[in-house]
Fold these 3 entries.
Entry 1:
Amino acid sequence: MDAKALVAEDEAVLRDELCAHLAALWPGLRIVARAANGLEALQLMDRHRPDVLFLDIQMPGLTGIEVARQAERTMHVVFITAYDAHAVAAFERGAVDYVLKPYSVARLAESVRRVKERLASAPVALESVLRELAAAAQPREHLRWVNASSGTEVKVITVDEVCYFQSDSKYTLVMTTEGEALIRRSLKELADQLDPAQFWQIHRSTIVNANAIAGVSRDFRGRVSVKLKSRGEKLPVSEQHEHLFRQM
């Protein structure tokens, strides 16, 4: 099925990757415009009148939610977002689709399938789901410290002291320049509470403090790893998260 699309994503690398994957997954889709911020997306939307909008929620100028409001009942919407479980319920109840960042090609393919099905019908009202998403997007207080066990001692460790968190069976290791400790929180729970601008998930078992990164390296097989400023070990980066370091 042929259709026109606008892609709005403020990170150039992710925007280009998304367009390349869409071209492969949906040969009949013509990407008529690419936007780097919300205001540009709104202007290009009015100029090109696409059938489908692929919108990053968090963009400078105008958010993806604000852009989507202007497309009410005229265009189908897919949100590209770093949100997780706290907002997914709103997506599932609404008439928009979503792809979580860092996205997988399989999930994007499923989104493409759903959008193709919806193209047979007129776009529906978005206001109720957009209200829920706007509420979920309100700034949250991020985790500032953790209580961690080191031997028989319980330490209070501020998150700024942490080099990285790593899942370890039923516990999570807290690695600092001073050593290691354990906390009884899952990595998933920590990911929901940490500031995503400072703490990056680089592997299903590892979240690293971006301020603790000295650099990245790639071995002869092309596998990426993170070097730390104050610790000797290297941390492997899964292929799913390599995009975080492509501009470094």
Entry 2:
Amino acid sequence: MKSLVEQAMKDGALGLSSALIYPPNIYAKTDELIALAKVASKYGGLYATHMRSEGASEMPALAEAIRIGREANLPVEVFHLKVSGKPRWGSMKNVVAAIQLARDSGLDIAADMYPYTAGATALASALPPWVADGGIQKLLERLKDPTIRTRVKKDLADDHPDWENLFYDCGGGAGILVASAENPDLKQFAGKRSMTSPRPGRNLRKTLSWILS
């Protein structure tokens, strides 16, 4: 991996980037990222990251990005800076303060904002990371197992400090709109969202039936 980064830098890359809420990046350890960032640093590169969390563990995720920048001695750019999940609304001031503190200490760190009220990604990205361990084929195989599907639904129903539960952060089923579907049998759901209901559990079950179909 270090050789690949070095070759990319020689070819004109601007630096090393990561998207740590998505498999397979989510499995990367901090020390591993520092080792790769040090290679980019030798060529004047930067470290750009979609942090490991923008929700329950956003502050530790930001601390990780800052550590990588300091130990690898290179600038840091945070992609899509935001606070994810209604329970955390109002905490952006703490995130900005931590970035400013790092800047004041000498680290060249900045961020680009994510000013939208909605995000877009593959529904598979909203699944617990253990589901994707081993690649997309393993993911698909697991979703055919009724026992695993039950476990997935249970995991998605709660917040988690060790992985970004996008389904939970958007408010469950009522917060998801299906933009498109690959499966012809599911194209009928494109452009639709779960109906508003006073019973959140109903929304959760209905939308999960789309995700896990």
Entry 3:
Amino acid sequence: MVRVEEERMKYLVTGGAGFIGCNAVQRWLAAGHTVVVLDDLSRRGADANLAWLQAQRGELLFERIDIRDAALLDAAVGRHKDAEVVLHLAAQVAVTTSVSDPRHDFEVNAFGTFNLLESVRRHMPSAVFLYASTNKVYGGLEEEGVEELAGRYAFRRTGGVPETQPLDFHSPYGCSKGAADQYVRDYARIYGLRTVCFRQSCIYGYRQFGVEDQGWVAWFTIAAVTGQPVTIYGNGKQVRDLLFVDDLCDAYDEAVSRADTLKGAVLNLGGGPEHTLSLLELLAMLEQLTGRPLRPRFADWRPGDQPVFVADISRAATALGWRPTVDVHSGVARLYRWVEENRALFG
């Protein structure tokens, strides 16, 4: 696995105080790089993550920026136009929030990404631009054969959903992230930006402050540790492929090291068929870890919730020389231990 450690570089990370962002930022600081974090600190846990990053060794620069403000964002990017890599993570991340406030969702995800692309095109057109898209661009996949098994749903197809799957945006969130996905791809074709678009599946790991409507692996784990009630929307047999955040950051590093050959690429990043879990299976794991039953409440299905999604990650494996290394049992155990050791953060 190639690490981006050979020379000092400057990274700019939007949403760098979020869950994925702070893990990527900490890694790059530890490797000796300079990292600029742009974040509006609106997400739960962002203040704690930023304080944690500021306590790390390395050259960290922080600016409180809302990516919806094109002028402020452009000025910030202009101040750091010597950055060689841009990782764009800032987003509205919950389907439920997008349904209740679609305008805000659009302004952050679609318009905010457009603002950033324009600033990068203007100030640092040679930078590597990594974008965190989502598997929600593939929609509900109603045409897929799905079978109900004991404890989980499963596709009848093997290998998962490939990047060639027709796009079918569902929910305002799917529309806003999907629009941004296509803008990022097209800015490589039309303007020559060195973009890579990652359609990410369920990412989980350290410093994830999951809530009920987003980050379900972390939310169930936090609730199990702190004794909060858990609600399952649907029957709990919904399945996702899970990717531990360390494996995700490995993929980012590989993409930076291969940027010249990946310009304009669209890649699925997830656990793939070998790293899947249903909600019920996660609860069973957590019951073993805590030594007590969790007794969830069940409620109606939520809009935009796919019964099953598993990504075909073979294109990423070939393009990046990368495979996930953390299995779901080990990953959930690592997250559980981190939550146990940091209970004070969830009071």
